[in-house]
Amino acid sequence: MKRSFHLTTLFNIPVEINYTWFIILGLVVYSLARGYFPYTDPDLDQFSHWLMAVISALLLFASLLAHEFSHSLVAMHNKLSIKGITLFVFGGVAHMENEPQSPGIEFKMAAAGPAMSFFLALVFFALSLACYNLGLPHFALSITQYLMILNIAVGLFNLIPGFPLDGGRILRAALWHYLRDIRKATAIASGFGKGFAFFLMGFGLFNLLSGALIAGIWLIFIGFFVMEAADASYRQLVMKRFISGTKIGDYITKDVIVIPAEMRIGRMIDEYFLRYRHHSFPVVRDDQILGILTLHDIKLVPRDNWLETTARDIMKPLRQDMVIGPQADAMEALAKLAANQVGRLLVIERDKLLGIISHKDIMRLFEIRSEIEG
Length: 374
Ligand SMILES: [Zn+2]
Fold this sequence. Notes:
Elements: E1 4-10, E2 13-18, H1 20-40, H2 46-77, E3 82-88, E4 91-96, H3 103-133, H4 138-159, H5 166-179, H6 182-209, H7 213-243, E5 259-260, H8 265-276, E6 280-285, E7 288-294, H9 295-299, H10 311-314, E8 316-317, E9 323-324, H11 330-340, E10 344-349, E11 352-358, H12 359-373
Parallel strand pairs: 2-3, 5-6, 9-10
Antiparallel strand pairs: 1-2, 3-4, 6-7, 7-8, 10-11
Helix pairs in contact: 1-2, 2-3, 2-4, 3-4, 3-5, 5-6, 6-7
The structure holds zinc ion.
C-alpha cells in the first residue's frame, strides 16, 4: 500500500502523508473559507476568509502531528521502536514494530495522544484570551477559537472506547490488566470498536435519510474506517500469536513448475495454465529466475498477439518483495505477500529456487494451528 509520500523526519521518526489526507485538507479549507469564517467574520472579504482557512488547516495539521508524536515519544521512551507516522483521513497512525509489553505502557502510550490534544486546546484557549485582551483583530480570535474547538474534538473522538482508537487502547490496557490475557482483552476492545462503528453508520444513515447528505456520508465513511481498523488489528494480533516464529521453509510447495522465458503465450495456456491449474509460474532461463508470470498478465495481451508474445515480454520482473528465504518468519512472508500483488513468494536460498509459498498456504497453516491450539 504505497499511497503515502515522505514529508520529513522528526526525532528520528519518518513522517509520511497519505494522499487521502489532501481530500480532508481540501474539505476543511473549503468549509472554513465558505462556511465557518464568513459566519464568524462577516466584515472580511473572500480572500481573507480563504487565507484564514489555509492558516487554520495548517495549524490543525500541526496539532494532529503533535498528537501522533506524543504517542510515539512515549513509546520510544518505553523502548518500543516506531517505524514511522502516517497522517491520513482521520488523523494519524504511529507504526509500532511490536505491541507494548505491559498494560501500563499501553495505557501511557494511548493516553498521551488525547492528553496532547487537550493540552493544545488549552494553549489555543489561552491564546484566544490573549487576542481578546490585547484587542487584536477579530480574525485572530476566530482562528484560535476554531483550533481550540477542533483539538477538543480530536481528543474526544480518540477517547471513544473502541479499539484501535486511543480510547479503545486504554480500554484494552485496563482489560488486559484485569484479565491477564491480551487476546481476550483485544477481542473485547475491538468488539466495542465495531459496536461504535455500527453506531456511526446507523447515525449516518439516519442523517442521510433526513436530508443531511454530507454529514451522513461522512459518518458512514468514518464508521467503515473504524470497522476495518478494529477487525484488522484484532486479526493481526491473533495471527501473530499462532504463526509468528514459524519458519516458512517447512510449508513451501517444492518441485515448482517453471515456464521457459522464450515460450509463447499460445503454448503456455495449454501446456501450463490449463494442465497444472496454477494462477502463476516463475519464468526462468538457464536455471536463472527472471520473474513471475500470472494469468492476469496474459489476459492483458490481445489474442491476436498470442503467437508472437513470449513469457519474458509480459512477466513481472523479479523484485525483492517476490522472494524470501526459507528461514523467514511466517508473519514476514505475510507482510511481503500483502505488498507484492502476486499472491506468491519464491523461496530462494543461494540463488536456488527451493519452492513457492502462497497467501493461501499461510492462511491454511494459521487455520490449522488455531484449530489445534485454540
Ligand atoms: Zn491518538
